[in-house]
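Let us work through a complete example step by step.
Step 1: write down the sequence.
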Amino acid sequence: MAAAPAFAQQAQTPRTAWFVQAGVSENNQSLTIGATRDWRWQKQYRLGLATGYWEGAVGRWLVNGRGSHDVTQIGLTPVLRLYPQAWRPGWFIEGGIGANVIFPTYDDGKKRFSTTFQFGDHLAVGKRFGQQQQHEWALRFQHFSNARIERPNPGENFLQLRYSRQW
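Step 2: predict the structure and record it as tokens.
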């Protein structure tokens, strides 16, 4: 219990972190790098501490498929995070929906996006650790689609593992 106030105090100070993330989907592997910046906003609820951050990311999808080509993904996402009261300090769940540009237009031979603009939404569970809570890992599920702006809109799902470090 003594660690909870110390952790809450750390969460108040906005942090900038860098991350590297690897992911897999049905026909792709991805490698993404990026940065996050914590919001100054936070709110303590009975359920736990809610806060958030901005995420900027640049990724490369290695597309496996007949006639396919690799694509680059650039995104900006606001993310809402919850540190549940019932969980041990440092554990969190989060979700976000952001704007992405994926170019050239994705086509793996089975699925073809109709636009380069895509929404990217994710859910994740993870843990902060280290003496100053400077390290973090997360297991994420992320879905990309254009929300039916144009058809076809098959979407693509990734399972991702992320490591972040505050600098």
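Step 3: interpret the result. The mean pLDDT is 91.
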